[in-house]
Amino acid sequence: MTVERLLLSGDDAVALATLHAGVRLGTGYPGTPSTEILETFDQLGGRAQWSPNEKVALEVGLGSAFAGARTIVTMKHVGLNVAADPLFTAAYTDVEGGLLVISADDPGMASSQNEQDNRHYARAAALPMLEPVDSQQAYDFTWLGLELSERWKIPVILRLTTRICHAKTVVRPRPALQTLPEPHFERDVPARVMIPAYAKPAHLRLRQKLAEIAAWNEAEGPFQIHEGDGQLGIIATGIGAMHAREAAPGASHLSFGLTYPLPIARIRAFTDRVERLVVIEEGDPVLVDSLRAAGLPAEGKPEMYRFGELNVERVRRILANDTSPEPVPPKGKPPELCQGCSHRGVFETLRDLNCIVSGDIGCYTLGVLPPFSAMDTCVCMGASIGVGLGMRHVLPEDQARRVVSVIGDSTFVHSGLTGLAEMVYNPPPTGHLVLILDNGTTAMTGQQEHPGTGRLLDHSATNLLNFEETARAMGIQNVHVMDTTSLKDDALRELITDLLAKNETSLIVTRQPCVLAAPKIRLYEKANAEQQATTCAADLVD
Amino acid sequence: MKVKNVVIAGLGGQGVLKASDILADAAFRAGFDVKKSELHGMSQRGGSVSSDVRYGEGILSPMVPPGEADVLVVLEETQVEINRPTLRAGGVLIAPDVLAPEALKNKKSLNVALLGAASTVLDIADEHWIAAMHANLAEKLHTLNEQAFEIGRQAARAT
């Protein structure tokens, strides 16, 4: 029998393995470079859904795993910060179906606000972590992660990076599972109700699980050794392993897939066979510090290589201990708001009114660049509202009155609702103004649906979360909706000027579909209307 | 064979990623080991985009190291200089000026036309190029792009 051979991105490889391994539910929130996993899983026929944010996605995923279903939860690296609360206590619980938490890191910040290294989460939450080096391992480790999760009843983290998620490499899949146990609830209070009386023994169980997984990793865990001349030994993980093998073809190479808990005895045996031991890892010195703590004479990289992605050239420099300045790559053309983008007029207005703009995460963060130069802060999803309120509280009145919070529609659902609650609860003396730039899609990550669009991940119709009604119900004093498609020149400027002069809480929803998404949105709406008409007709016949 | 390194560059919206998908797929269909890599995200908003395709035997890193590209395909003249450092000494540069100004009926097929030009220095059989174009483009675009591919190829051969 010939084995099927495919050319897949890491994200698509994970999605295919998710399907083959019988995962019943995939949840997540869009975020580059993780977004395609759930989209592909859906296209392959799997059940995938976007949640409002990563915390909710992980909670839904945990419930699914408690009920005995294999489950994946996907997010970008900063998403795991949002999901960290359930993650750290989910670690104490016993899952029944395999639960794979997929974190896609972005070293080099191709499309992120920081380059945090989520390997720290494995140690901090005490959860096993798998790190593939290519799409084949992304496929294999999705299976393995689910299997380990079920064997030890513990969530497992699959850590991907940009160059794993978006690089296409060859994959040979295995046969799909044919039968899987049906989800079924078995009461197990001490394993799932984390009050102190149960959490104390649960923490002990967690450490016992980790000790057993470490022993498994020593004996049976995935690893690759390429023997060299015995002089230079390189230990590398993730994409760094591929760069290292290319940069130093004559060296001995060890890479392993389960990077927490570490197979220290296996590493020690490798170390004994080489004269010089260098650790190649992207990001923080996580692995090298662990090896040194275990008494191994590991060399790390000079501090300058902590920043940005690694590549073959940088690995060569690390091995040569070269700390001379690196050539600065020529500057390309920066991205900009699309021609015809609905955000353009809003930022022109904010610029002209000399507003202090507390911004947020999305395409509209590009409002910071010329010709708009109309953003003053951007930190994390939803921060625009809290940061804007904080400035309003302490600034002198003339400045406080100029502060505006700007947040996108998907970001508002993700983390803006609690900001509005704060605004109602602790209104600054000058009031505050929040703008929701509603372009009807999660544009930045490639036009995904969210609760405010009224459509599901696969674009079929569902309930719609109405921002303006929600804001009114929460107690915002002035709520306005402005369709900026047919905006009169000064209408938005006049409304903002008027609201900034009041000492009240105000919200404007500016509504105009993303220029890139609008044609597709029209098609989805048409299809959903036809679907509904068919359903109604069928109901009448019945 | 040793590794063949190709970099395709341009601006967001020009079809850089589509071109690299077609090239990677063609090399894959020809039986080579293939890796392809690029950055998504902010690059989609009209900024500079580049994509690395490597094929041959036993490809390791998915990224073409600086100064090691055998072929550099650039879809936009302004992007030539910023990408030139990726090309090795003696490597082949393919830029839009390989085509006569009005050679293409539809400017959107520039990406495929320049792949056609690149095909003259890449050892991939025609059947794989055609299969890869068919697999990566909507059916109504097949004829247009096959023609563009051929126009690019003839133009490269003429220079």
UniProtKB/TrEMBL annotation, chain A:
Molecular function via GO: 4 iron, 4 sulfur cluster binding; indolepyruvate ferredoxin oxidoreductase activity; metal ion binding; thiamine pyrophosphate binding
InterPro entries: HACL1-like (IPR045025), IorA (IPR017721), Pyrv_Fd/Flavodoxin_OxRdtase_N (IPR002880), THDP-binding (IPR029061), TPP_enzyme_TPP-bd (IPR011766), Transketo_C/PFOR_II (IPR009014)
Family annotation (Pfam families): POR_N, TPP_enzyme_C
Domain Thiamine pyrophosphate enzyme TPP-binding, chain residue ranges per copy: 360-508
Domain Pyruvate flavodoxin/ferredoxin oxidoreductase pyrimidine binding: residue ranges: 18-176
Keyword presence, DNA-binding: no
Keywords: 4Fe-4S, Electron transport, Iron, Iron-sulfur, Metal-binding, Oxidoreductase, Transport
Keyword Metal-binding: yes
Cofactor: [4Fe-4S] cluster
EC number, as in UniProt: 1.2.7.8
Cofactor: binding comment: Binds 2 [4Fe-4S] clusters. In this family the first cluster has a non-standard and varying [4Fe-4S] binding motif CX(2)CX(2)CX(4-5)CP.
EC main group: oxidoreductase
Gene Ontology process terms (BP): small molecule metabolic process
Entry-linked Gene3D superfamilies: 3.40.50.970
Highest taxon in the source lineage: Bacteria
Reactions this protein catalyses: indole-3-pyruvate + 2 oxidized [2Fe-2S]-[ferredoxin] + CoA = (indol-3-yl)acetyl-CoA + 2 reduced [2Fe-2S]-[ferredoxin] + CO2 + H(+)
Function: Catalyzes the ferredoxin-dependent oxidative decarboxylation of arylpyruvates.
PANTHER family in alphabetical order: 2-HYDROXYACYL-COA LYASE (PTHR43710), INDOLEPYRUVATE FERREDOXIN OXIDOREDUCTASE ALPHA SUBUNIT (PTHR43710:SF5)
Assembly and interaction partners: Heterodimer of the IorA and IorB subunits.
Listed name of the protein: Indolepyruvate oxidoreductase subunit IorA
Protein's organism: Allochromatium palmeri
Automatic annotation (TrEMBL), chain B:
SUPFAM superfamilies: Pyruvate-ferredoxin oxidoreductase, PFOR, domain III (SSF53323)
One Gene Ontology term of the molecular function aspect: oxidoreductase activity, acting on the aldehyde or oxo group of donors
PANTHER family: INDOLEPYRUVATE OXIDOREDUCTASE SUBUNIT IORB
Pfam family, any one: POR
Name recorded for this polypeptide: Pyruvate ferredoxin oxidoreductase
The keyword Oxidoreductase is assigned to this record: yes
Coiled coil: none
UniProt domain Pyruvate/ketoisovalerate oxidoreductase catalytic: residue ranges: 12-104
InterPro entries tied to this protein: IorB_Oxidoreductase, Pyrv/ketoisovalerate_OxRed_cat, Pyrv_flavodox_OxRed_cen
Keyword check for Oxidoreductase: yes
Keyword tags: Oxidoreductase, Pyruvate
